Amino acid sequence: MAEKTTSLAWLDPILRMMPTVPRPRTPLPLGTRLLWTFVAITIYLLLSLTPLFGVYGSRQLIPLELYSVIFATSAGTLAHLGIGPIVIAGILLEILVFSGILNIDLEDPVEQLRFNALMKLLSLGIAALEATVAVTVGILRVRSPLLGFLVVLQLLGATLIILLLDDMITNGWGIGSGISLFILVSIARTVVWYIFSPAVSPDGYPVGIIPAIVIAALHGVLPPELIYSFYRGGTLVGLFSTILMILFILYLELLRVPIPLSITQMRGIKYTLPLRVMYVSVLPIIFTAFTLALFSGILRYIAIANMIGPGHPLSWLACVTTYGTRFVPCENSVLYFLTTPPPPNITPQYVVVHIILYVVLCTVYAYLWVQIAGMSAEEQAKYLVRSGLSIPGFRPNVKVVTRYLERYINALTITSGVLAGLVAAFGDLLQVFSGGIGLMLLVEIALQYYAIAMREHMFEMFPGLKRVLGIETI
Q1: What are the start-end ranges of the H helices in 99-144?
Q2: Pair 440, 346: CB distance under 8 Å
Q3: The pLDDT of residue 256 is above 50
Q4: How far apart are CA 393 and CA 401, in angstroms?
Q5: Cα distance between residue 193 and residue 395, in whole Å
Q6: How far apart are CA 382 and CA 405, in angstroms?
Q7: In this predicted structure, what is the pLDDT of residue 274?
Q8: Of 295, 289, 298, 300, residue with least CA distance to 330
Q9: Residues 234-255: what's their mean pLDDT?
């Protein structure tokens, strides 16, 4: 009988060349893993603070704040691409695997290694493409082709370092996922910046709302721009909105819908499957943010490059006008409604369209991700039946369990998409620090890390739990 092969087998000679960080020989204590996690954070922050050699200026086609939130970027530095190439490569490969286009079994350790190596290869390819485009179209400004080539090499090297940092954390040296960690650190840094930064804003006050209020109090006046403004980072409304929004997101994330189950082979033993009300939130939010950032960035580039202003035949599509020292989209153009964070010339029409756009996109992406990522009612039913669980009063049959779960999972998918869209939209409108999207990612990832840290601490206190639960040790 011929040995089963996968579509990745022919790539093995290339994939073996991909560098990786091996697992530690023995499980590391939680304190050591936290130390290595801190080392990874430090290296990533250094990358985000080190300017690229050979670049004398940079500009951003895609809105900088939104793009930096979802991909943890820092323009003009070694972290200019951030985790973008890795996230895009991972999503593309997961879609190919779950849709059956890529024939690979992720439960097979050998094929899992192939998958990880292919993701690194694809990430470097995407990084090379993004870096080349950034230099070619002038996002990163260089003075000669040779310097441009050196910039591409620097960004490739930085992407490789980030890949290895993610490897180090995932393979048992740290805790959680490196990608999630870097997003968390990037957003947290933005929030802290808007609260405490002493850097001076164009209005003459510090960017951070706390030092700005202190200076305003010393002058005996509180300017309106410190209370609420769409051209300022930290505002008083934004500070209170950020605190209240964090509490609200925490409440949503902790809500559960219990599904009663029973063990098929043992009558009378009940079990509850707690499904999160926010059944899907992170990936739809990232997809929505990237969609808005990409299309608004393209339209903004077209408008500025061709100086499309009011009265131009294409002003309905992409139109910009000056607002102080910068360009802002013209009211009621397509670019205007796609712009996020909100522009300073905000109108009631923008508010309505902004909310609807977020809700629709988040809901659509939530539904698509559930179908693609193996989170559908059918996939959950297969898992439950294989685990010897069933719905009380129903036969332990995949089709029967699927029909029962559909009403819950379909409703939760739509509910989580709508709620994620509303939180993201109102977060933008209320000027929360790092935006509604950033705050949702911050809370979600922080909760994940808290759960991981508590679990690892429990396993360290009671090592026998891993054997009881059937969890493999390193």
Answers
A1: 109-136
A2: no
A3: yes
A4: 11
A5: 56
A6: 11
A7: 81
A8: 300
A9: 91
Listed in order, strand segments (DSSP E) in 66-125 are: none
The tokens for 4 are 């089963």
Terminal-residue alpha carbon distance, the chain = 33
Closest by CA position to 441, among listed 182, 127, 119: 182
- Give the rounded percent of residues in the chain with a pLDDT score beyond 90: 23
What integer is the mean pLDDT of 57-65?
61
The torsion region of residue 471 among left (phi > 0), alpha (psi -120 to 50) and beta comes to beta
Cα 71 to Cα 88: distance, rounded to the nearest angstrom: 10
Beta strands in 270-332 (DSSP E): 270-276, 320-323, 326-329
Q: How far apart are CA 357 and CA 360, in angstroms?
A: 5
Q: Is residue 120's pLDDT more than 50? A: yes
CB neighbour list of residue 188: distance below 8 Å, 6 or more residues apart: 442
Residue type, 55: V
- pLDDT for 8 equals 63
| Cα distances (angstroms) measured from residue 140 to each of 11, 44, 172, 258 | 33, 20, 36, 51
Task: Give the strand pairing for 140-142 and 256-263.
Answer: unpaired
φ/ψ (deg, to 5) at 262: -140, 155
CATH topology of domain 28-175: Preprotein translocase SecY subunit (1.10.3370)
Name the residue with higher pLDDT: 12 or 119: 119
- Two tokens at 244? 């209240």
Please give the DSSP secondary-structure letter assigned to residue 9: G
**Integer angstrom CA distances of residue 29 from 37, 38, 177, 448, 453:** 12, 15, 17, 19, 12
Query: Is 5's pLDDT higher than 50?
Result: no
Query: What tokens appear for 83 in the block?
Result: 């985790």
Phi, then psi, of 206 in degrees rounded to 5:
-60, 150
Pairwise CA distance, residues 110 & 102, whole Å = 15
DSSP category for residue 51: B
- Strand ranges in 3-162 using DSSP code E only, listed in sequence order: 55-58, 140-142
Output the pLDDT for position 39. 93
| Segment 305-332 mean pLDDT | 79
- Tell me the pLDDT tens digit for each residue of 358-416: 999 999 999 888 887 778 888 888 877 777 776 776 677 778 888 888 888 888 999 99
pLDDT, tens only, 161-177 = 999 999 999 888 888 88
Neighbours of 201 (CB within 10 A): 18
* Amino acid 195: pLDDT: 92
Query: Helix-strand-coil percent breakdown of the chain, rounded to 5?
Result: 60, 10, 30
* Helix-helix angle 178-196:435-461, to 10 degrees: 120
